[in-house]
């Protein structure tokens, strides 16, 4: 089955630093990847849609200069949280869509990255 | 933004009992999907139902969709302790479009 990985699984950083999170589709090519944010005991909120070779599409209220997304290849998308602050602490989850499987908009999710900003 | 609501917010049942979770949404959809999330982990896709379908089964899971009421339900039969997790519905307005998640139901199955 389609597998999506994320790295790192956990990261703790100091306020003001930048953190990069990787999302990889391991056994399929993903022209589109999605980045979500989840606060404790809450649902997933879509942050942005990442398309390979083009600029990401951000949801309303998400600062594109704060959350930099790069989708340079068909198997890798990165999310960089710039100048992180404690309020950026959250669970970040990526997903990828496998168009070749014939799946009907099914997304495969990574295991998530727990970011803690001190 | 959240597409809709799920109820109940939390559900606690005994092993062997059935669990029913409901999801409501606001706009027309192309399909609706159910996902499971174990604590602190990623999401696992359970089942997808298209807007022209009314019911779908997968193992112990049964999903219904009522587009006139803009609602869906997920039934887990003969629940097990391993079913303890959060369950989310997600809607897609168009084929290939982004998913919008509901608030989720926290299910606890006691053994």
Map the helices and strands.
The complex is a heterodimer of chains A (118) and B (111).
Chain A lengths: L3 E4 L2 E4 L5 E7 L6 E7 L5 E8 L5 E2 L8 E7 L2 E6 L8 E8 L9 E3 L3 E5 L1
Parallel strand pairs in A: 2-11
Antiparallel strand pairs in A: 1-3, 3-8, 4-5, 4-9, 5-6, 7-8, 9-10, 9-11
Chain B lengths: L4 E3 L2 E5 L4 E6 L6 E7 L5 E8 L4 E4 L2 E6 L4 E6 L8 E8 L6 E3 L3 E6 L1
Parallel strand pairs in B: 2-11
Antiparallel strand pairs in B: 1-3, 3-8, 4-5, 4-9, 6-7, 7-8, 9-10, 9-11
N→C terminal distance of chain A: 37 Å
N- to C-terminal separation of chain B? 36 Å
- Could you list the spans of chain B in which at least 5 consecutive residues all have pLDDT below 50? none
* Structural class by helix and strand composition of chain B: mainly beta
How would you describe what is shown here?
The complex is a heterodimer of chains A (118) and B (111). Chain A is an all-beta fold and 118 residues long. Chain A has strands spanning 4-7, 10-13, 19-25, 32-38, 44-51, 57-58, 67-73, 76-81, 90-97, 107-109, 113-117. Chain B has 111 residues and is an all-beta fold. In chain B, 0% of the residues lie in helices and 56% in strands. Chain B has no helices and eleven strands. In chain B, the strands form two sheets. In chain B, strands 2, 4, 5, 9, 10 and 11 form a six-stranded mixed sheet that branches. In chain B, strands 1-3-8-7-6 form a five-stranded antiparallel sheet, with no helix packed on it. Chain B starts with a strand and ends with a strand. Classes of the chains: A mainly beta (118), B mainly beta (111).
């Amino acid at each position: 089955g389609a597998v999506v990985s994320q790295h790192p699984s956990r990261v703790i950083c100091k306020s003001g630093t930048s953190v990069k999170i990787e999302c990889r589709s391991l056994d399929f090519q993903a022209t589109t990847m999605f980045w979500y944010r989840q606060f404790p005991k809450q649902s997933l909120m879509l942050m942005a849609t990442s398309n390979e070779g083009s600029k990401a599409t951000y949801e309303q209220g998400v600062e594109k200069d704060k959350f930099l997304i790069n989708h340079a290849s068909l198997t890798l998308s990165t999310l960089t949280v710039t100048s992180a602050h404690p309020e950026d602490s959250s669970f970040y989850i990526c997903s990828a869509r496998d168009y070749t499987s014939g799946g009907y908009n099914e997304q495969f999710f990574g295991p998530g990255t727990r970011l803690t900003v001190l | 933004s959240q597409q809709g609501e799920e109820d109940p917010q939390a559900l606690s049942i005994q092993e062997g009992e059935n669990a029913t979770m409901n999801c409501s949404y606001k706009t027309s959809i192309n399909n609706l999907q159910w996902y499971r999330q174990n604590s602190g982990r990623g999401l696992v896709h359970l089942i997808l139902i298209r807007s022209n379908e009314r019911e779908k089964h997968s193992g112990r899971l049964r999903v219904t969709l009522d587009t006139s009421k803009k609602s869906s339900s997920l039934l887990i039969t003969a629940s097990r302790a391993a079913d303890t997790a959060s369950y989310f519905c997600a809607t897609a307005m168009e084929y290939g479009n982004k998913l919008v998640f509901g608030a989720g139901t926290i299910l606890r199955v006691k053994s």
